[in-house]
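Sequence only, no structure available. Ideas?
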Amino acid sequence: MKTPQKTPLSHIRNFSIVAHIDHGKSTLADRLIQMTGGLDTREMKEQVLDSMDIERERGITIKAQTVRLEYTHTNGEHYVLNLIDTPGHVDFAYEVNRSLAACEGSLLVVDAAQGVEAQTLANVYHAIEVNHEIVPVLNKIDLPAAEPERVKAQIEEVIGIDASEAVEISAKSGLGIEKVLKAIVERLPAPKGDETAPLKALLVDSWYDLYLGVVVLIRVIDGRIKKGQKIRMMQAGASYELDRVGVFTPKLVEVGELGPGEIGFFTASIKEVADTNVGDTITDDRKPTAKALEGFRPAQPVVFCGLFPVDASDFEDLRAAMGKLRLNDASFSFEMETSAALGFGFRCGFLGLLHLEIIQERLSREFNLDLITTAPSVVYDVVMTSGDVVQLHNPADLPDPVKIEEIREPWIKATILTPDEYLGSILKLCQDRRGIQTNLSYVGQRAMVEYDLPLNEVVFDFYDRLKSISKGYASFDYQLSDYRTGDLVKMSILVNAEPVDALSMLVHRSAAESRGRMMCEKLKELIPPHLFTIPIQAAIGGRIIARETVRAMRKDVTAKCYGGDATRKRKLLEKQKEGKKKMRQFGKVEIPQEAFIKALKMGDN
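Reply:
I predicted one. Tokens follow.
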């Protein structure tokens, strides 16, 4: 165990890197680690802080990661820099928020060719809200398409921060990295804190490690935290004795203690991540601090969907796998549910569609599970005639319409940045999705549109449609704004007069007919013919709004008749007709699993 030299507060810098997806955050983090000798050349790999396979494959950051860098300035002074690499995608905004709360400053990375994007704005506003000092960094300066002067003007115009001293770098080739380190030391403020005060630390993150148990990432505000000390979590009310205290360089290095302004981790034989609340205040058990820190708002799931195993015998494996994922992702919630069509499964809550996709992929990849996902839905507030407000996560559980006063649905504020030529199609897409335009302005050559949109229209396939309309050039960011009353109805799908609960959904009355027709047409192609005709219907209450019929397979019952009287053939055909009628009454329609999966694929062509 190494005990580092006590670093004076004035020589500590805590900073995070904020940027839009793909503007080079993780690559810049790699170069900073390499430059300060955090890892030698042999240990270095691309996107060293993106440790999950999915992060590396998709080229996105999902979990915020921390690293402590040692840097010697040209004036000979020694500095400790704590870097937190944050995700850029809208679904993981809660990760960004809590990472920023542990820092005093941010590097704002902007692609010198693409300029300011939707998430650049969202993330920099998070940083401004927590009073960060912001240093603009222009990345990819060596690209032929780079226009640093235009992008500087854009940063000043759109975000309103001075970009005249923006650091110009190329994170890939390592150009200008020394300037970034200098800017961190010279332009970002040092943390404040009192070493003699009782221990007060912020719980920034926690995750489960197979060997160490629960690892807790903290930022010390006042006092010191040492190995063997007994600490208390103020919100959870639990006390623990510390087994080890350390920092990430990005390798895990144990240290004797951490002082004010430092970011590090501890382990304390904590059994479950659920016992550690992000945003909790950690203090000394014997000499607690008087006032707890302001925590974070807990991450609220906005999208819900059912996950069912394709093979019913995998149910217990799915339960265990979800428990394990929950250990490392506190924002993922689930509860058991059953469905007549799909058997036992779970109703899960996610922060958005990417979050849903990532969890689904991790379940199938890390735990080898085959899953069916039901149509994603959002949380509705149902106001009953009695005055009670019920939260509805699953459209199949909608109470009797007679008892409902109104249904309120969540709306979002969406910001879309797009090149001018795609603006018309994007405005049409938003109008079709019941959007209300609130603003339209220009950022250089690109249009910035702000819309109020109902979330239930966005969770289906809005993002995919936006990307295909704009050939991938439009960027999209949203935040939940409020709940508004909507004319919503429950649409049920009936197969052979039996409702299929997994396919029921809440839709706006104006879109119900087209959505119902689309679903029926899709199912007609997917359900294989049986020996009897199968009606597929979409219904609102008792009213059928769309219908398709799967033709019966015809067995040639007259094949054995050679010659003879025509009445003999007729008799056989009549008998077949009666049989089919009876079959339709009692026959069960087998809907293959693939049909469910395809019918639930978002994407209305």
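The chain has five domains: 9-187, 200-284, 303-374, 381-486, 490-599.
Hope that gets you unstuck.
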